[in-house]
Structure formats: structure tokens, C-alpha cells
Specification:
Layout lengths: L23 H7 L2 H4 L3 H18 L4 H19 L17 H5 L6 H37 L4 E6 L2 E7 H26 L1 E2 L15 H8 L3 E2 L3 H6 L2 H27 L7 E2 L18 H24 L14 H24 L1 E2 L1 H6 L7 H9 L5 H18 L8 H7 L13 H7 L8 H16 L3
Length: about 450
């Protein structure tokens, strides 16, 4: 599209009040087009919807609207083909005619940018949801196909009780499905239209905001114009949601970093998601997981920084709110990339069930031993103490618990029967944890069914 000749001085929408020149340093400090430009598609769609609504108010004739729509669609095409180069200061005002000038009737940059941001964020959260679902599908696939693998669970990073590898996978699936629910709620909360709120007090020409909301895909309206232009809670909510996902990705990564170390050896990442050392030839570093853990801190930082920026400003629009866009852009990109890397790292990793089983030890069945006596009618408080004595005996004699003789068990308490050694069976142990949420095969499959149902919602 041919652009009109520019004046030597940029035309400012707010320039009529001012006679003095702006310090060039202030122009640079105030400039936002370098990052606002990512919103070009939303800005143009919003402008078309606003112009269409103004044909009903009488501000624009149908012919004028059609001219504007044609011009704006041409600008959209130029943006998409990377041919459009807006000049700093004109904020995309490229149709330099009296007709184009009518487009701003009743509209402020305040409600315009808030609308653009909500539309952009809504679309990006759809992509984040898709990436999160993809990660959950990888978890579900591995949990289903690798359900036979038994490994130690850990509390305080000390070996605790045997669990299925699938149970560990689904522990994070549970966290990520909660994230998915929060994300879907956040999307709905964001999807309210501020356009038509003007600068602060509303629109004086009776514009049909419901029509604009319908055209732009919004579920409802921001019902107060002051709130509409001054609210960035929708960005904070999205960043808080992202921070929670980042926290879960970080903890998931930390577990896998530990499990992939030579000391554990439960899992090995594919070469595509690891790097070596510039000095030590033998090294294979889990950089993908370490970056996932590190980038979660970046997400926390942008969220906290934005909250600090907006917590003390007075009501409605203030220039501080310009600082809400870059944290949003950075967080969305970081989270999208992180979810993709997480899914691909897990999908291509190799699991070593023999290493997992080799890490199991009879003392991890001490609770099973206590429960063995509970089934004989002895109170758990007492059986816990007796099982602890067996652990102590094992340590004192330097014999694994499953290698102690029946008579040695009975020196601690005669109620240990001849069948006591049957307790020391890892498969038996996990299968006894059959209540909903447990690590038995049935309970794990039940968790998988719930996960698959969750993934089907909203699709």
C-alpha cells in the first residue's frame, strides 16, 4: 500500500495541547512501538470492528467504512509479508485522510491497547493450552506403557516406599492438570472487551459494544470504563498461572536431573536435549532440564516485577501500565518454549527399569512389615515400634531385613509368624496400595482414565 508523505515532525494524537518540543531522550524513553508491533493483527481487527460499529452511530458512512476496511486489510497484508514499516511516533496511523481521522472518534489508546493485549493473550493462551495438553499426553502414554516399572519413592530426598514409575509420572500429571484447569479459567477471565470505554469515562456516541465483542470473539464486556482502561489484572493472572506451571516444570525437571545422574541412572535423555563439556569428554549434561528449572525463575521475576509496577498507581490509566506488555510477551514465549522442550525431552528419554528395581531395598518395606502386624489385630502405634526394632536389628547384624531368620523376627515379637518373609515382595507392596490415588496397577489405571477425561474437556 502506498503511504502518504510524512511531515518532518511526527503527528501526535495528543499534540494540539503542546507547543514545545519533546526531548529526544524522552521520545526514546516513551517509545513502545518496538514491542507494540507484535499486536498488529489484533490492533487492525479491533480497528475494523470499531469502524463497523461507528457506521451505526453515524460517525462513518458505509462507503467510508468500506474504504477504511480495505485500507486496514491492506496494511494487515503488508505486516504479514513484513513489508510495512511504521515510523516511530505515528503509532500505526498510516491512512492520512479525513476518513481515517474519524476512526479515532470516541476511542483512546487506553481502551485500544487493552483490547489488543487481551486478544493477543487470549490467542497465545490457546497455544499454551495446546502445548500443556501435548506434555500431558506424553506423560499419559509413558505411564500406560511403562506401568510395570517399580522404583523407590522419596521423601526428604531419602528413599521411602516402592511405587510404580507410572505413579511418579502421574503425580506431575496431577499438577499439570490443575494448571490446565487454572489456564482455562484464566482464558475465560481475560476474554472480556474493554473497547468502547474511551480514555476513562466511556463513549459519548452510543457505540454498540456488544456488537464489537461478538465480532472480536469476546465472551462479555468490561462493565466499567474506568476499570476497562486501568486494569492489568488479566496480565497478572496470566503471569501467575504461568508461574505456577513454571514451578511444576522446575520441580519435575529437578527430579529428572537427579534420576538421570549416574548415581541413580533411572533415565537417560536423548542426545538432542543434552550437551557435553568443553573440558571433560565423558560429560553428558541435562541442559534442557536445567534450563527449564532456570527459566521458571525468569517467569517468577516478570510476574513479580509487573505486580510491583502496578501495585501503587492510582486508578484508571497511568503510563506505568505500558510496562505490562513486555513481561507478558517474554513470559508467554518462555512458557511456550519450555512446554515444548519438556514434552520432547520426556518423549525421547530412555528409562532403565533394572536400575530402578536395583535401587529398592528391604528396609523400604518397613511400613509393610508394620501393616503385616496390623492385619493380626495389633494397633499401628505398637506395630510401628516393632517394625522399627526389626530395622535396628537388621542394621546391628548387617543383614538385610529379608535375610533375617524367622527366629530373629520372633525374638523381637512372637507374633511375627512363619509367613513374615512374604512381606518382602515389592510387587505385593505396590499392589496393596489399591485405594483410589494409590500405586497399585488398578489405581494407576484409574488415574490414567481421569487424566484422559480431563484432556478431552474443552477440546
Amino acid at each position: 500500500m502506498t503511504q502518504p508523505a510524512k511531515n518532518t515532525k511526527p503527528i501526535r494524537l495528543w499534540g494540539g495541547r503542546f507547543t514545545g518540543e519533546t526531548d529526544p531522550m524522552m521520545d526514546q524513553y516513551n517509545e513502545s512501538l518496538s514491542f507494540d508491533r507484535v499486536l498488529y493483527a489484533q490492533d487492525i481487527k479491533g480497528s475494523i470492528a470499531y469502524a463497523r460499529a461507528n457506521t451505526k452511530t453515524g460517525i462513518l458512512t458505509q462507503q467510508e467504512f468500506e474504504k477504511l476496511e480495505e485500507g486496514l486489510k491492506e496494511v494487515l497484508k503488508e505486516w504479514e509479508e513484513d513489508r510495512f514499516q511504521p515510523a516511530p511516533g505515528d503509532e500505526g496511523e498510516i491512512i492520512g485522510t479525513s476518513t481515517a481521522g474519524k476512526l479515532h472518534t470516541g476511542r483512546s489508546r487506553n481502551d485500544q491497547i487493552a483490547t489488543d493485549m487481551r486478544m493477543w493473550l487470549r490467542d497465545e493462551l490457546n497455544l499454551i493450552e495446546s502445548h500443556l495438553i501435548d506434555l500431558l499426553k506424553v506423560i499419559a502414554q509413558r505411564a500406560n506403557s511403562e506401568i510395570d516399572h517399580i522404583m523407590p519413592s522419596y521423601t526428604h530426598l531419602q528413599r521411602a516406599q516402592p511405587v510404580r514409575w507410572s505413579h511418579w509420572l502421574l503425580s506431575y500429571a496431577t499438577a499439570f492438570t490443575s494448571d490446565l484447569q487454572r489456564l482455562r479459567f484464566t482464558k475465560s477471565s481475560i476474554n472480556k472487551l474493554p473497547l468502547g470505554c474511551g480514555a476513562v469515562a466511556g463513549n459519548a456516541f452510543g457505540i454498540d459494544r456488544v456488537q464489537m465483542a461478538r465480532e472480536l470473539g469476546f465472551e462479555g464486556l468490561i462493565m466499567n470504563s474506568m476499570s476497562g482502561v486501568g486494569d492489568r489484572d488479566f496480565v497478572v493472572e496470566a503471569l501467575q498461572c504461568a508461574a505456577t506451571i513454571g514451578s511444576h516444570l522446575s520441580r519435575w525437571s529437578e527430579d529428572l536431573i537427579i534420576y538421570s545422574s549416574l548415581e541413580f541412572g533411572y533415565i537417560k535423555l536423548a542426545d538432542a536435549y543434552t550437551t557435553g563439556s568443553s573440558l571433560m569428554p565423558q560429560k553428558k549434561n541435562s541442559d534442557s532440564l536445567e534450563l527449564l528449572r532456570g527459566k521458571s525463575g525468569r517467569i517468577f521475576g516478570t510476574m513479580t516485577g509487573l505486580m510491583m509496577s502496578i501495585k501503587g498507581i492510582p486508578s484508571t490509566y497511568n503510563k506505568d501500565l505500558q510496562e505490562s506488555l513486555q513481561p507478558m510477551l517474554d513470559t508467554v514465549k518462555t512458557l511456550k518454549d519450555s512446554l515444548l522442550i519438556a514434552a520432547r525431552s520426556l518423549a525421547t528419554a530412555t528409562v532403565y527399569p533394572d536400575k530402578m528395581r536395583a535401587a529398592l531395598s528391604p528396609d523400604m518395606l518397613a511400613t509393610d512389615l508394620a501393616e503385616y502386624l496390623v492385619r493380626k489385630g495389633i494397633p499401628f502405634r505398637e506395630t510401628h515400634h516393632l517394625a522399627g526394632q526389626i530395622v535396628s536389628l537388621s542394621e546391628t547384624t548387617a543383614k538385610p531385613m529379608d535375610k533375617l531368620s524367622i527366629s530373629e523376627f520372633q525374638t523381637v515379637d512372637p507374633r511375627f509368624g512363619d509367613d513374615v518373609l512374604s512381606v518382602f515382595d515389592y510387587e505385593r507392596s505396590v499392589e496393596l496400595k489399591d485405594a483410589t490415588g494409590g500405586t497399585s496397577r488398578r489405581a494407576v489405571r484409574e488415574q490414567l482414565e481421569v487424566l484422559e477425561g480431563m484432556l478431552g474437556e474443552g477440546s
